[in-house]
Amino acid sequence: MKSLPYNNMAFQPAYKAMFISFISIFLLTCNAQNDTKNDMTDLKKIPLEDFFKNPNKSNLTISPDGDYIAYLAPVNNRMNIHVQELNTETVTQITFEVERDVAGYLWATNQRILFLKDSGGDENYKLFGVDTDGQNASGLTDFDGVLTQIIDRLDNNNDEIIIGMNKRVPQIFDPYRLNINTGELTQLHENPGNISGWITDHEGKLRMASTTDGVNTGLLYRETEEDSFEEVFHTNFKSTLSPAFFTFDNKEIYALSNINRDKLALVRFDPKTGEEKELIFKNEDYDLSNASYSKKRKRLTNASYTSWKQTKHFFDAHEKSIYDFLANNLSEEDFVITSENKDENKFIVRTYSDKSRGGYYFLDWDKRYLKHIESLSPWIDEADMADMNPIQFQSRDSITLHGYLTLPKGYTMTSAKNLPLVVNPHGGPWARDSWGFNPEIQFLANQGYAVLQINFRGSTGYGKKFWEASFGQWGLSMQDDITDGVQWAIDKGIVDKDKIAIYGGSYGGYATLAGLAFTPELYACGVDYVGVSNLFTFMESIPPYWEQYLSMLHEMVGHPEKDKARLEDTSPALQADKIIAPLFVAQGANDPRVNKAESDQMVEALKARGVEVQYLVKDNEGHGFHNEENRFEFYRAMSDFLKLHIGQTNNSNK
User: Fold this and answer.
1) Are 165 and 258 in contact (CB under 8 A)?
2) Global confidence as pTM
3) Residues 313-334 pLDDT 10s
């Protein structure tokens, strides 16, 4: 059940978060309740740490032979890799990180595991190897200032994998064949400067590449590795042709495409002619987000899309029978197969819901045997958590917008009246909020707040037209969508118009600052977490490996010269004189995406005017706080800040 690139990696590289839609171009009903409002003092008080401490185990994966599992577990508050034989209770800790969590790992062979880590949140991920008995640990790409990507784990090669590194030129990635035992590197091709992604066939041969000049994108193809790459497809970045994987004869590719359509669909594409050969599946309302296949049986198995919840469309009866078996034998609301052995008969299954992190199960399909392995956070009782209700409303210019409203436990959509509200715009901005357990949302609901999440225009998954509607609209119609969502909640009588806060991270941090600056009467306070404050300085300080996309960023956000007046008007740091509400700012000193200077200038501008501003900086963090103790400090400070400025019911966590 292989999927898009990185399916076998136990992490999604953090540096991709903001440009998730860029990379895809070249390449996550209200439950019925009694209509009775409980007094908020009846809410069970849950310690803050229970929401934000490390899970017992996470990122469980199964070895290629199906005899072992690996997972991350906390040791002195840092997530390290452990290996356990499935038939015994014997566990071996194989990494011993003390400064920062292991960022992610994969099984390279039955005997060796590869893992990534960065330094203090700088996101320059280095690749390391260690045997499953904890021996022979070695740094494989331990180069200063270099980021390592996994291109192909080469399932049938026990000695090598294919990686990408920006070692030669910081702005671009060259492909290398890496010996996972000795660290020997062989460069496979020299990136001429315009290649943004590399694609291998089912034999691990480098056959395709994605290109960009910043605005236009293309696909390069070659029949064999001895041939030269030739461009076979060219389009503007506004249209997407994202190769998923080769067909099983290695002659054509499956791809997600919205060429000549609004929604991303699964197609079969001929790389020799640059033509779409077959439309395999599409959803009329939502973009497809993923496609999967069976490597052993050489069959396309399913495609996924997200409405208010993730949905799978099956092409393969065998895989559907596995999912049907799981659906009939698991009590949790939803689940996903996260790992499988090479024979595709043993699986790791992850369950989840909006009120639970869920847990991990082991499935032996041949024996129809399902075993619970671990609950991620057993200290959280699902009965104490709040429902994540899907909502929709009309924007002021008549666009249908979707989102989620989470109410404190005991309230329903019809019984909730005059609650304090925290608006939580998502980051990206070319990403989206989805249904599932979110510790921030549940924590705030347990504190007595309603929490509103809005998939404003530009959020991914709703089609090309909805995405393009965000271009040039930072601080304008994108912000209006958030404002309109708040007004919807006020008009419904759900929230108290005098007790509304806005909190977000990354682009959500920008939306927080924009909300305070451009609708100062709407919010009583704001919390900006690693957010953009100045659109000029933000685009000047992007990481070097984003420079390929700078022209695209200029078109999507604004050009510093052509759109100077608009960018000035929509940069909160340059409009700080309009902010009157108290602000809390949190920032990682090593953030490579949103430089610390973004927060510094915002704080300085407000302090100069005497506006209340609190500032929390962590010297060992980057784009978000990953170390457990830093998470505790941030959320404790945010809790106190919100309590002071929008009040809450008698449900504080002390």
Assistant:
1) no
2) 0.91
3) 999 999 999 999 999 999 878 9
Residues with Cβ within 8 Å of residue 62, at least 6 apart in sequence: 68, 69, 107, 339, 340, 341, 346, 347, 348, 362
Collapsing DSSP to helix, strand or coil, 187 comes out as strand
Q: How large is the greatest C-alpha to C-alpha distance in the chain, in angstroms?
A: 72
Domains of the chain: 385-646 (3.40.50.1820)
641: Cβ–Cβ under 8 A, 6 or more apart, which residues? Answer: 525, 527, 582, 584, 614
From residue 92, alpha-carbon distances to 70, 132, 135, 239, 391 in Å are: 9, 8, 11, 48, 46
Using DSSP, state whether 326 is helix, strand or coil.
helix
DSSP string computed for 6-54: TTTSSS--GGGSTTHHHHHHH--------S-PPPGGGSPP--HHHHHSP
Q: In the structure encoding, which two tokens stand for residue 179, read together?
A: 């010996």
* Structure-derived torsion over alpha carbons of residues 237, 240, 245, 247, reported in degrees to the nearest 10: -120
> Strands 138-139 and 126-131: what pairing?
antiparallel
State whether residue 303 is helix, strand or coil: strand
pLDDT in tens, 475-534: 999 999 999 999 999 999 999 999 999 999 999 999 999 999 999 999 999 999 999 999
pLDDT at 24: 33
Amino acid occupying residue 128: F
The one-character DSSP state at 183 is: -
pLDDT > 90? residue 653: no
Encoded tokens for 236? 């503007």
Nearest by Cα to 523 from 508, 512, 533, 510 = 512
What is the bridge-based pairing of β-strands 275-281 and 265-270?
antiparallel
| Cα gap 400→466, rounded to integer Å | 10
